[in-house]
Amino acid sequence: MSDTHRMTRRMGLRTALAAAVTVPLMGTLPASAARPYHRRLDVMTFNLRFASTLEPNSWTARRPVMRRLLRQEAPTLMGTQEGLYQQLLDIHADLGAHYDWIGTGREGGSHDESTAVFYDTRRLAPVEHDTYWLSDTPRVIGSNTWGAALPRIVTWVRFRDRAAGGREFHVLNTHFDHVGQYARERSAQFLAQKIAAFDPALPVVVTGDFNAAAHDNQAYDTLLATGLVDTWDAAAERSALYATFHGYRPLVPDGDRIDWILATPGTTVHRAAVNTYEKNGQFPSDHLPVQATLTLG
């Protein structure tokens, strides 16, 4: 494809750009990128809970808490799930002008949930990206052939790291089906095949809500069989563990961790955390964000 496109906050979910064609992203790095940055990446995966109007956990009620959390944590890179277009615009506004995002709706439009990837533009420059549907026809918008309750997608981005001499790495961000185990297993196999096709010299980071408990699901085993490392297990330091889905009910210590951050072997994981931030009893989402501070190998 000779034309170049960049999915921005304004065009990120347009159906025309949802066609599953790899989109190169080009451009020179601005002079402001010369400012020094530590090579550690602060990575977050966060199921945002779509922007419902139902109280007491409407988006209107949750957004100020989400804003406070994200500004406090300031992730370098954040894989999100379930975000609706206007909600993603809100999050972009709340993160600030030095962030941008890439993503499309799982049915190819702006009315449905996304697996958008947010990134700090002062640190990361996207080189190319793609969206795949988790099905036997991954380039058919909205396709669903594995019995999932809903169409599911994975957003892939290849980034250039300004703080590491322009070194590139891959990010895959996804949301596996919440009902079908077969769909989860096939989705994991699909991701494994994509990862195997990447240049092995480039690190890989995988974020997502996998709707499967770490260490207790074949989908998890399939992804780790590729050689990926669970950053929670590899971390030199970690927070207390809670079930990462809480549904606005009391938190469950040592519960199922269904939201994961995986990375290439050789990655140094300085810290991993399940973030329990809330304000006056209001959580930003029905999931807890999972975070990892990494130095890619």
Descriptive report:
This protein starts with 14 loop residues before the first helix and ends with a strand. It has one domain: Endonuclease/exonuclease/phosphatase (Deoxyribonuclease I, Chain A), CATH 3.60.10. α2 packs parallel to α3 and α4 runs parallel beside α5. The chain is globular and about 45 Å long. The strands form two sheets. It has a seven-stranded mixed beta sheet with strand order 1-6-7-8-9-11-10. A six-stranded mixed beta sheet has the order 4-5-3-2-13-12. It is of the alpha+beta class. The N terminus is likely disordered. The longest helix has 17 residues.
Sheet bearing the most strands, described?
Answer: 7 strands, mixed
Question: What is the terminal-to-terminal distance?
Answer: 32 Å
H/E series, N to C?
A: HEEHEHEEEEEHEHEHEEE
* Whole-angstrom Rg: 18 Å
Briefly summarize what is shown.
The protein is an alpha+beta fold. The protein contains six helices and 13 strands.
Descriptive key words:
single chain, alpha+beta, Deoxyribonuclease I, Chain A, seven-stranded mixed beta sheet, six-stranded mixed beta sheet
Task: Present the secondary structure layout.
Layout: H1 15-18, E1 23-24, E2 41-47, H2 59-73, E3 77-81, H3 85-95, E4 99-102, E5 117-120, E6 124-133, E7 153-161, E8 167-175, H4 181-197, E9 204-209, H5 218-224, E10 229-230, H6 231-234, E11 259-263, E12 268-274, E13 290-295
Parallel strand pairs: 2-3, 8-9
Antiparallel strand pairs: 1-6, 2-13, 3-5, 4-5, 6-7, 7-8, 9-11, 10-11, 12-13
